[in-house]
C-alpha cells in the first residue's frame, strides 16, 4: 500500500493507504476526503477532483496530459501544481505523496 496525505484548505491533514493501480481520486472518495467531489466518477470530464500536488512531488507525479490540461481550464484557482486527482495513477514511487485540496471545486 502507498500512503497519500490530503491537506485541506484549512490545513487539516488526512493520510490514507492507497492501492497501487488505483487513482488518487478513487482513494479520496473511498476514504471520505472532503473537497474531492469527483462528479464525473474519474472520466476526466469535469474538474471536481482538482488538487495541488506538493512542490516536492511534482516531478514524480509528472505533467498533465492534453485532455487533463483542457479540463483544468474549468477548475477554480488553477496553479502550476494543479492536477486532476482522477488522472494520477497510484504507483509505488508515490508513497508519501502530499496533495492539497482547493477551497472549492470548479
How would you characterize the overall build of this protein?
The protein is of the alpha+beta class. The chain contains 3 helices and 5 strands. It has helices at residues 24-30, 58-61, 66-72; strands spanning 2-7, 13-18, 50-53, 82-84, 97-100. A 5-stranded mixed sheet has the order 2-1-5-3-4. A hairpin with a 5-residue loop joins strand 1 (2-7) and strand 2. The longest helix has 7 residues, at 24-30. It is globular and about 30 Å long. 32% of the residues are buried.
Short description:
With 106 residues, this protein is an alpha+beta fold. Helices cover 17% and strands 22% of the residues.
List the helices and strands and how they pair.
Layout: E1 2-7, E2 13-18, H1 24-30, E3 50-53, H2 58-61, H3 66-72, E4 82-84, E5 97-100
Parallel strand pairs: 1-5
Antiparallel strand pairs: 1-2, 3-4, 3-5
Structural descriptors:
single chain, 106 residues, alpha+beta, five-stranded mixed sheet, 5 strands, 17% helix, globular
Amino acid at each position: 500500500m502507498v500512503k497519500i496525505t490530503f491537506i485541506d484548505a484549512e490545513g487539516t491533514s488526512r493520510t490514507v493507504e492507497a492501492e497501487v493501480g488505483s487513482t488518487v481520486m478513487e482513494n479520496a472518495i473511498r476514504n471520505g476526503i472532503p473537497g474531492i467531489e469527483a462528479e464525473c466518477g474519474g472520466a476526466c470530464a469535469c474538474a471536481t477532483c482538482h488538487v495541488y500536488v506538493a512542490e516536492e512531488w511534482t516531478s514524480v507525479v509528472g505533467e498533465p496530459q492534453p485532455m487533463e490540461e483542457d479540463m483544468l481550464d474549468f477548475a477554480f484557482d488553477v496553479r502550476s501544481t494543479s492536477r486532476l486527482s482522477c488522472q494520477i495513477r497510484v504507483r509505488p514511487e508515490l508513497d508519501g505523496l502530499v496533495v492539497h485540496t482547493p477551497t472549492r471545486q470548479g
